[in-house]
Sequence to fold (622 residues):
Amino acid sequence: MCGIVGYVGNRQAQDVVMEGLRRLEYRGYDSAGIAVVSGGALHVRKKSGKLANLTALLGDEPLPEATSGMGHTRWATHGPPNDRNAHPHVSYVGKVAVVHNGIIENFAALRAGLEERGIEMGSDTDTEVVAHLVQDAFETVPADSASRLREAVRAVCNQLEGAFTLVICHADEPDTVIGARRNSPLVAGLGDGEYFLGSDVSAFIAHTREAIELGQDQICEINRDRGVTVVGFDGVEAQLSHYTIDWDDAAAEKGGYDWFMLKEIAEQPAVVADTLRGRLTESGQIVLDEVRLSDQDFRDVTKIFIIACGTSSYAGMIAKYAIEHWTRIPCEVELASEFRYRDPVLDRSTLVIAISQSGETMDTLMALRHAKAQHARILAICNTIGSTIPRESDAVLYTRAGVEIAVASTKAFLAQIVACYLIALHLASVRGTKWGDEVAVVVDQLRSMPEAVDRVLDTMEPVRELARAELADQSQVLFLGRHVGFPVALEGALKLKELAYMHAEGFAAGELKHGPIALISDGTPVIVVCPSPRGRDSLHGKVISNIQEVRARGAKTIVIAEEGDEEVTPFADHVIRVPSCPTLLAPLVTAVPLQVLACEVAAAKGLDVDQPRNLAKSVTVE
Ligand code: M6R
Fold:
């Protein structure tokens, strides 16, 4: 949610900042802006709409040469997404420029104080107050201070409430850019004589893979001569925590696909394989040495809560079936945004699994903190190394999906399911609810899943045609599933909603007759995730009955069914075939056609698949 870049070095700041913004645009695209420091002055350009509008503006009104600067791509919170509210915001004497991600909760009081002094506001944002406050604070820091701007920013941060990442520069300090963070992401990059700040590492991955993690309530100064210095909001200098980014520049490019989403869908076989890699022994046992919880910790667990949002919560819903079936530990899945408001019962023997692709989702982070305060153990399943959720958890199992750029999550979803299953199997073995040979059977099945996903991807052309011919002009689409097929149906509906802006709802197939069946009229498309006929005996038959019920009321049925399942054929207007696999692993194949369908419907409607309206990749506000 909002992408931020800062730069000090030896190249043209405009080029570096614009390149960083291009890679961060998935975080928000309501407006974009850039500021550079040159000739003792700030030079700012900003424009509403996508980054392309800012690029066009820079063509008409080029910036001067400069080697320090910063930029922002916005997901609007305070004030509509227009030019006036675009970042950077500049202080009343034009010396300080600020970009911000998050919400400054006490901005109204701060703004009132500034207005009383006669300072006129140039925007509706909560951010602008910071520029004016830093301007004032800078004047109060002695000119011979080691870092005047850093000290000024620190003084202001101590007045702010809420969540924020700030990047700030000052016209009088062309060699310095300051970043600050509280409950909102920021990382620093170390190049050769050049330094970067970014909401995430994709901001500077084109230039360096050496990064520095920043903790909560820290200020990071990047300075041409001094390099990187980190201090807490209390002024105490912090040790730098270095790491090397383990993916490269090419991973953040489309690689010949029309959309990042298509590329990410295609990467899924490799992602499933990577998430398993090194975590299975030859004899089919689970090795999770990286998870810093002992076997005894796992044995002590009496209850599991999974907390997550959106697609990650559907991965959690799928995992619940496996966890309870394999470990016999009661497991509840909660929307992170609701979790702490209903006073859940937690104690030391509760394991809370927080699932998040970005590792920065504020709802999940706040739920995690609530659970931690109740002494529960927290295990994160996360895709982003060094992000806040794993940092604040007791243990982490990283999914290895690689960077996910399309706003609609795809490959991270499959990786999350696999990671949850690894945890579930590990729990089952250490607790003795599954014998070694039983675990080995599931491990073997998991090992075959990359190939199964690959086979699904090879058969997607008819699905694309179906999307264009049958779905693109519909006003609503319903999705049905049972057991693990139910969360897959929810995920299919979410993909269609967020990408194609269509009314799409997922239902537990058995629940339909209790009300939602009234939505069905002549020609309503209903997509059904059908379980294997070889799985739990009654499930397949029940879903076939549900298909007949909707068909009898005029629905057009599109059924995702296992290869060789001929029982569904008479009741399906279209069948999408997926390889046969065990019931609990089926979501890894049944989710894929639904991703492809949504992507294709959106493309057929001429929509931006990677950057759907109103959304952002990483939701860092509650
Ligand atoms: O980064 P997270 O996994 O915590 O994000 C959770 C949701 O915001 C995310 O899955 C969202 O629902 C996606 N847009 C779904 O495609």
In short: The chain has a mean pLDDT of 94. The chain has three domains: 3-253, 282-447, 455-604. Residues 376 and 606 are 47 Å apart (CA to CA).
